[in-house]
Amino acid sequence: MEWYWILLISIASLLALILVILFVLAVIGFNTAFSRDDPHPFDQIELTGTKYEGFEDLIIPAFQYMRPIQYEDCWIESFDGLKLHAKYYKGKTDKLVLMVHGYHADPLNNFAIAGRRFLEDGYSLLMIDQRAHSISEGKWTTFGVHESKDVLRWMEYIDSTIKPSMMIAYGVSLGCATLELASSSKMPESLKCLILDCGYASPLDQMKESFAKKLGLLGEVVVQMFFPIVCPMIGRFNILKKCYKELEKASVPCFFIHGGRDSMVPLEEGEKSYNHCNARKEKAFFPDSEHNSCFMMHEDEIVSKLNAFLD
User: Fold this and answer.
1) Per the CB 3.0–4.6 Å rule, which of 188, 219, 240, 264 could disulfide with 291?
2) What pLDDT, on a 0 to 100 scale, did the predictor assign at position 1?
3) Is 268 exposed, middle or buried (0-12, 13-18, 19+ CB in 10 A)?
4) What's CA 308's distance to the chain center, in Å?
5) pLDDT tens digits, one per residue of 117-164
6) Which pLDDT belongs to residue 15?
7) DSSP class of residue 263?
8) pLDDT at 254 (0 to 100)
9) What is the rounded end-to-end Cα distance, in angstroms, of the chain?
């Protein structure tokens, strides 16, 4: 055999081996990033050393307020046959907030403070457990892709069962992306506003950024090349969906919240989504706030601005 054929075969074999290794890394990465997780509530763990250190005086009283309140367990079936759970807290009026939590988060971790405020203001709450979280079924989270279909079913449930005079949907991080990906769909007339808090503009881009922090350029390459293959193959979802593209077709008014010090989802992501949104919109961006801490740090200002927007 001529030497150049040996060289070509060797190079091809090496490239094939590299691709196999990268594919295996992508499968491992998928199983790590998208598998279900059931985190502990903040009032059951030590917050020292976390980004919430120093906010215990705000967080713990909110948990103490929420814990004794009676709620009703609610259930729906997803489009792909999963049994999904939510807690319904009855308020003093017939207005309701649908609360959609973030990635690997306990719902109260994201919404104890906001939940207390909305209850005090008379709203009822429907606090859902996203698929693959808490007691909702599901093996994989899909970074908002399938969750966007779930949240539309929750809206239908609310509209047909609870029948509020006015509904607001509030999503944080993954929950925000969930609402953004659903924003182009037909929604109940009772839904008056989407509160979009610290969401990423694209699931794939968010994965690239997350893996780049851990693995550098290798992480970006693995995500960019193989997640569009691995996600449909294992999780049965399309990670190429873009939140900001759906917002271009949104019709429900959108209220954006984001922190300038967000180390998980940079403020630029929130600005991109805001700029692409073609519905009536308002924003409350805070230079001093980290990921999912805006409402915690600026509750009165956000509520005042939101109420003016709703009027």
Assistant:
1) 264
2) 58
3) exposed
4) 25
5) 999 999 999 999 999 999 999 999 999 999 999 999 999 999 999 999
6) 85
7) S
8) 98
9) 80
Alpha-carbon distances, residue 153 vs 77, 169, 274 (angstroms): 8, 13, 25
Q: In angstroms, what CA-CA distances link 35 with 32, 141, 256? A: 6, 6, 28
Segment 27-39 mean pLDDT: 89
* C-alpha–C-alpha distance, residues 135 and 129, integer Å: 7
Locate 13 and state its tokens.
Answer: 């074999």
Cα 238 to Cα 248: distance, rounded to the nearest angstrom: 19
Cα of 229 vs its chain's centroid, Å:
22
Torsion-angle region of residue 18: left (phi > 0), alpha (psi -120 to 50) or beta? alpha
Residue type, 68: P
Which is more confidently placed, 4 or 257? 257
Which residue type occupies 45? I
